[in-house]
Design brief:
The structure holds three protein chains of three kinds. By secondary structure, chain A is mainly alpha-helical. Chain A has a single domain (11-334), classed as ABC transporter involved in vitamin B12 uptake, BtuC (Orthogonal Bundle), CATH 1.10.3470. Chain A contains 16 helices and four strands. In chain B, helix 2 (64-77) runs parallel beside helix 10, helix 3 packs parallel to helix 4 and helix 7 crosses helix 8. The chains are: A mainly alpha, B alpha/beta, C alpha/beta.
Amino acid sequence: MNVDNRSPLKQRILRSDGARFMAPLIVAIIAISLYTNGENGNFLGGDNLKNILLQVSVLGIIATGQTLLIAAGQLDLSVATLAALAGVIGATRINDGGSELWAVVLVLLICALFGLLWGILVAGLKIPPFILTLGGTSLFASIALRISKSSPVPARERFEWLGRAKVFGVQTPIWYFLIVVVIAAFVMRYTRFGRHVYATGSNEEASYLTGIPTARTKVLCFVISSTLAGFAGLVAMARISTGDPRNGSQLALQAIAAVVLGGGTLAGGRGSPIGTFIGVVLLAVVQSALTFNNVQTFWNDAVFGLVLIFAVVVTAIGDLRRRRFGARPILASFIRRNEPVQVPSEK
Amino acid sequence: MTEEFSHIGRRRFLQGAAAVAIGGGLIAACGDDDDKSTDAAGDSSTPAVTEAGLIGLTLNGLNDYTKGVATGVYKALEGTGYSLEVVQVNYDAAQELAAAEAFLAKGVVGLVIQPNTVESAGAAAEKAVAQGVPAGNCIWPGASASDEFFVGVAELDSVQGGRLIGEYLIANATPGKVCVVQGVVGQGFSERIDEGLDEVLKDSGFEVVVREQGFFDRTQAVGVVENAFTAHPDLGIIVAYSASMSNGISQWLKDQGKDTVLHISSDADEEMIGWMKTPYQSATRYYSSAQTGLIAANAVLASLRGETPEFRTVVEQVMATSATIDSIVEANPYMFMEFKDKVQNI
Amino acid sequence: MTVNVLELREISKSFPGVQALSNVSLIVRPGTVHAICGENGAGKSTLIKIATGAQSADSGVIQICGDRIDHASRRTVQNLGVRAIFQERQIAPDLSVTENVLLDRLPKRFGRVDWKNAKIQAKQRMNALEIILDIDTPVRNLSVAQLQMMEIARAVSLDARLIVMDEPTASLSRHELEPLFRVINKLRDGGVSVLFISHHLDEVFAIADEITVMRDGVVISHGEISEFTPASIAELMFGRTVSSSQADRMSQGDLSKPRLVINKVCSDRLNDVSLSVSAGEIVSVTGGIGAGVSELARMAAGGMLKSSGEILVYDDSRESHAISSRRQALNLGVAYLPADRKRKGLLLERTLSDNIVLGQQAAGSNPILTPRKVSESARAIAPSANIKAANVDVVVGTLSGGNQQKVMIGRWMGVNARIMIFDEPTAGIDIASKFEIYSELRRLADSGVAILICSTDFQEVGQVSDRVIVMRSGNIVGEVEGSKATEGRLLEMEMSK
């Protein structure tokens, strides 16, 4: 009964959402890595570390944007085809003789405008984002095909800095991915906007009645997510030197999966860029391990499915325990620390 | 894509009545014809002889390969009274069947199908047969239960294609690790190439260390190759099952400066022929997509003229290298360029 | 001799760090109404959760109608005729009243739902309880009070031998108590027992036959109601004497300094409402269901559109600002504390600290807000709002109703709100915490905050207000000084034409 004391640091860390959600993922990543490395010693090499991050850099940038949306209780399915559209527009601009920078700025501007449109429709007209962005998915796919005349648009020898150059021996997409994650983590944790996002996602009505600008918060989340999707699309385009209108149709669901793996809930109020980062890395580690172990093709989807199910089940068990027995960290049950945790005396 | 399709979906309603009328007329015509031919030859299975009308073509998706198929169909119809309408079905089996039904409702006299899956194409052809509309198949991977519904098929022996690739490897490469980038497993094509390839490579010293789907997608194909090289830095051979994937892989090899890797593909398109003149792609198992369309369409036309077309027509396939590709393509182009404009905006 | 409907013997239950119940025994006889009283944390809720199979006991025996239940689950207990109505609503918000009342027992005909019959059945059950609800409305549209009546209707409609109610009156207004009591009396006459938790001693005395008083997880006393007086029960509950006198009035507010002026406001529920609240003053608006007091509270805070009229806020330099949005109202120092704290006030799954600083996070302008700063200000505010919790990192949903309301108050103390608007300030709060909230209100007023309370609890408004305004059907029908606002007087004003 003493509000002046914070709970002990160790307990707070063990009990924090982050630890609860990330612990099982990290355990899974380590287990998969060790096993695969036993089969093929290249797995834990520096090259593969870079390779893994490179493979998911585009997904990671999109998933980071999606984290903000999901934390705010929203969702955007159209990011995948928007990314493809961004790549096509970028490549087309270059082929028409524009400068690279101008093409990038133009694409980001267009994507931000689409995000603004979604945000205004969702926040203003209270349209469910699921249906709205599902519609957007088809719309963007169509526009991308029309602009590209259904064929990949080559952008050879261009956008080196965006997709293929190396800085300190590390490919630029990895840098972009890491920078985006770090900035997003900062924004979500250390800014007023970040707190507004979580509050809006936790209880929109309560936040609104408290005076939080919930509509503006939601609109901003859509704008940020769409802009990041556009940027990811440009990186993807630069990586294969082609604006492919069909690029990455499965990215949206993978991004949502990564956010949920990292502790996000579609009901809103939860999700962190760092958690999403780990979720994305887990997906990549699984993919890479499948290749390293030359697992037969038809098992691939099953393995992905099982990883996803494993993660949500472990999280759900953690939640259940927390609700039943107070905030008892799942990590503690892993490492068998069963000392009683203080529980507020009133149920 | 979807836009095109929903357009038809919308029109279907409006044209329902007209379709019924036309369909009724056709059946009536068949009836008349049957009466006469029974008198004359006693052969009741000869379909009606038609000189003009609309022919429908469904493509499994839209890319340079399927555009080539479409030019083949245009080529076959050149100089006839038939007109052509084309839809693509986004690699979706259900959509393929729906598109065929829409064509039939519209009153097409012939149907050419570039299949998405063996089953969905068979189901579409069955519907066509029920309405007395002849159907042709642009890729026939081997005998199946739905064969009776097609008047003619372009037979592409994918197993043989796999053997060609394997034989090329044995003749031109030193044994080592191989990475196979499949298209999509479950369609009945990639598996058959695998079968032929594995058969030839058995006990040859070549070892397939990575075999994964690239989903006919550049980025995903590159992802497979990146993973493969990290897992096996000594990887020397890449076999990819489509031009769309190989083009991404070639670009990636170039970016990485890997000019000693032997990269072999399947099919061909304009971009690939460019890559074949670089160190980043050595050979392709070539066959003409345009020819597949031409064969299937010709079978449909023959049937409409009242002839009984040959059921199976084999699509030529051959291993092409940088030295031979130009002459091979000239003799048997993957796209009839005179129709290129027509297929640009399907 | 008759078999007891429910018999609990030596029940114990512990949670990590807390012994919730130790050796608790309880007997409910057929056809009796049995009340459990106790302070928050006394273990009442845990006890009835165990009795209804929602939680399992660590040790002890449960007997229902003479049968010993070894593994009590919700279902087995239900099948034996024990029905529970918990405080957490168990409803399907988008389904109609009919569907919610009948739930899985919708009458079927030819394998399809027989809607005609279903509606007749639902109507009959509601009529039997004299509950008036539109059986076709989605439950989402019902008020908290109506929801509870619907839930009671559902439980009673089942073939029950014992109905367990967790604080059934917590969110009911006075007008709805009488029908509830009528229902309980009918049940008792029909041989059905009722076991309920209540904080309202007057209600306990109005309806209960027997009473069990708990404190700190043990039974302190039990017996026939005639053996007790309200004062003796209160003393047993708290282990000390409780002053039930009015909270001391230090000031009456500075009437020369109006803070909030509502001027001829109209909406679909309100008709030409005008009032003003001065700094340091507590003004209550009261009335029955449908009077529009809840709408007025939300509108005054800028959280609802009005069709005409104006809401003015006066700042320290007596300049007036018209309110047009909730956010603008916030920036003018207007706090709003909704009746339904769980749905409209709190971020239930987040921590005390997150909730208490929410006002600061909404109002401030500095874009950077470190977790350290958040935690520091939470720790600074929490004690001044008298919140009782282990620490500021507890999940707010686990706190008691009284503490949750103090979190809400703390949220607004954190932004130095000059005007606080309360909708049902003590809904769902136990008797002891109620008095704490009342003295909290008084302290706030003494510090110069203008307080507007919108409440349907006549006793409450009489106790805390400087002035009471009575409304009926969206109109103001009278005003009376706080010291003269007895329940009788308010009821008279509300009823008179």
